[in-house]
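Usage

Read records sequentially. Each one opens with the input sequence:
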Amino acid sequence: MLLVCLRPASRGGDVLLADGRDVYDRLVGSCPEAAVTSAQPRTAYFGAGAGRTTQVLTAHADGRISIRLRQDGLARWSPIAQPYLPRLRGAIADSQRRISLRAGQGYLFDNHRWLHARTPFSGDRQLLRALGEPHFALPEGFAPHPRSSAAPLPTLARRY
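and closes with the structure output:
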């Protein structure tokens, strides 16, 4: 995803970015059960009527992990996931970095690795967003940090 600021808000509207790998490592380190539950199919529903059931964390066959999340009114959670939402949100908050974009500034990132949000704003904020696919194959998501205590999700799922 590419996001470019044409006109910043008169107040607020900062970008909040969290590296999914850091979120994952923090979540596994503080509450492995939350990571395992976040990887269970059908624990989240994202979108309106034609939305889709999914999970927050997806483990791939090569050991990499993808992260996808909504935290707005278009996200609903299964009863088994709801108790772990505070842990997930805490790991995200601890990982977040704030960026104030000025006119002409922007960022490009992998939407399966990075979580993004914004702070409330007032004024006539204007940004351009472009979604696309790379011209060459990129591995999905991220590899867990080799020095972290985080084990791959399939291993965690078998332990719990």
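Summary fields computed downstream for this record:
- The two ends are 35 Å apart (CA to CA).
- The domain at 2-159 is CATH 3.60.130.10 (Double-stranded beta-helix).
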